[in-house]
Design a protein that fits this description.
With about 210 residues, the chain is of the alpha+beta class. Helices cover about 15% and strands about 30% of the residues. Helix 2 packs parallel to helix 3. The longest helix has 14 residues, at about 30-40. About 30% of the residues are buried.
Length: about 210
């Protein structure tokens, strides 16, 4: 029979940026989502984020590559001993996981990056167990990019767009993950839109 294959670990990071400042780099969230999209397209069943919050080690007080005063700084949010304000990457990754995170879902084949008609634009699609569809678009270009997605068969439903503008996101303690800002009505075989640099768009049939 088939054997499980696990890979531990993968990460996106900016070279020459010290670990404690990585989370404030605007592109880190989109780069991490691109890694997850590529994993989906390669048939990976699950991608797990190591921790939601930075973790304090009670018996460790050192400063090392991923530690600051004994706190393992690899979360999407700081330890609550430090701050209640999330890192920038929390908002984009939180948006992606909200509409892609479902046991039993399946990836819909897409092409991405240099193999796409739009280099630097990465597209992933997921069909959830309840029949809802989520399309993720990430722009790693430095400029506004127009794109068009062609579907093999008509969707025939509204797609609700959620936008995370990572360049201009200012984290605040009580700011929610982005709500839908518009809807594309009764989408058939084509979805056209524009996306800001280093932004993440979610198009989903989910109504929440």
């Amino acid at each position: 029979g088939k054997k499980e294959f696990w890979q531990d670990e993968m990460a996106a990071k900016q070279n020459n940026v010290e670990p404690k400042r990585q989370k404030q780099v605007a592109v880190l969230g989109p780069q991490t989502i691109v890694s997850a999209i590529c994993s989906q397209q390669m048939g990976v069943d699950n991608v797990l984020f190591w921790q939601a919050f930075d973790q304090a080690f009670t018996n460790y007080r050192e400063n090392a590559s991923e530690f600051e005063d004994g706190i393992h700084i690899t979360g999407l949010c700081p330890s609550l001993f430090v701050s209640s304000t999330p890192y920038k990457m929390y908002y984009s990754i939180g948006l992606f996981t909200r509409y892609n995170n479902s046991s039993g879902g399946k990836a819909i084949a897409t092409s991405s990056g240099d193999y796409e008609d739009y280099p630097g634009v990465y597209i992933g699609a997921t069909e959830l167990p309840d029949g809802n569809i989520t399309i993720t678009v990430v722009n790693l270009n430095i400029g506004l990019t127009e794109f068009s997605i062609e579907f093999d068969k008509p969707i025939g439903r509204d797609l609700h767009r959620h936008v995370e503008d990572t360049l201009h996101r200012v984290p605040k303690t009580f700011d929610p993950i982005s709500y839908a800002d518009c809807s594309f009505k009764e989408v058939q075989n084509t979805l056209k839109d524009t996306i800001d640099p280093f932004a993440v768009h979610i198009y989903t049939t989910c109504k929440y």
